[in-house]
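In response to reviewer comment 3 from the previous cycle, which asked for concrete evidence that the modeling workflow produces usable outputs, we include below a single protein chain processed end to end. The sequence was submitted unchanged, and the resulting structure tokens are shown without manual editing.
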Amino acid sequence: MGQLRDEQGCAARILRSIAIFSTISALSACLSMPEPEPGPPEPPAAQTSSPVEGESQPTAVPVNTPTPALESGCPIPPGSPPLPDLDAEFGWGASLQEYLNQGGLVEPLAAALQSTPAPDGNRAAVSRRDLTGDGLEDLAVTLYGAEQGSTRPSGSLLIFRCDKDRYRLAYSTTPSQNVGPPVLMSVKDLNGDGLVELLYWRETCGAHTCFKQVEILRWERSGFVGLFEGRSDDLPSPKIEITGPLNDGRYQIEITAEGIASAGAGPYRPFTRTWQWSPERSKFISVKEQLAPPTYRIHLLHDADDAASAGNLEAALIMYQRVREDGPLDDWIKGQDGYTQLAAFATYRQMTLHLQLGRTAMAEQALQFLQESVPEGSTAYGIRSLAEAYWEAYLETGELEAACAAARRFAQQQPADVLEPLQYGYANRSYTPAEVCPPTG
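The workflow returned the following structure tokens.
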């Protein structure tokens, strides 16, 4: 038994000696071999077995394909097609769709679009959002360029819907020499229905002034439909704002007309038109218009006339008083002469309203003030004469209608002295002989 153990131990020692000798021999051989020249790395071996669950596996990078910062939300295998020609004469829809469906990356496309010309300093854009509610990212693209023979930029809005495993062109606008390119202003849920809407505008310009027509798009079943009702291209030099959300989670669109760039238009009074979502009509509808506070004297006179026409005589009397006494109001290019004329007309209006209210003594005081403040030879003397014609007819007949008829005749006979001082360009209201009487409703 002891002899057997001795023999086994001897055999183990012999095997260890052989292993150590083999290792030393192999190492010596390696050290004595010359170092090989570096060569191209071998491609990774194909995986022939399923990865072990939980084991980290290397990610293979597709050959000749740039590494994307963000991959498209549409499940298309990434590829490396060349960028489409963005200088082509608006043949963009088919080429862009082909580029995207070949696996073209969105980021290089968006970077290329930033170099294209655009109106008002806006940039061509790519918006990546789920526009149809199916959980896949769609693309809205604006492209700009200039048609041959035209210096005015034009362009298109293209919406590519991700349909399962490819992009399909679902909406496009047609370039036009007469209308500017679409400018994509907003991509978000404007009406609180859970779907994203797109708001864009296109610009038209006349000799002096530009206008913008707004459109709002939403996906419905099989296509994009317009949700914006009415015109916005009648608002000169518009400023477009999206305000909200309101208490119901919806937004409203406010467009302010800021002016006509022509001296013949006269002083412009900005006003804001507001659109709100109407669930009954499934549209954004115009709900109100709001004038900006008056900064020109003529516009305060218009407000006073409107108050009188609405039957708010006491409010109108206060406004006419402000026309006379509010120094900071702008008198436009008419200066001091314009102030004198409008102050005189406001005093005449006060006289007529006092008579309507049965305040004969106060009406007479207004006439006396007018006679004292507007001497003969003043640029407002024609308006003083108008007031005197009205007053004399009233004293003779005791009838307001007879007094009004006398004032109309005088204005018709002396338009340069009565009506022209009230004209402030074609952007403001014009006064006729029929309108020199109190504008009461």
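Residues 70-178 form one domain. We consider this sufficient to address the reviewer's concern, and the full set will be provided in the supplementary archive.
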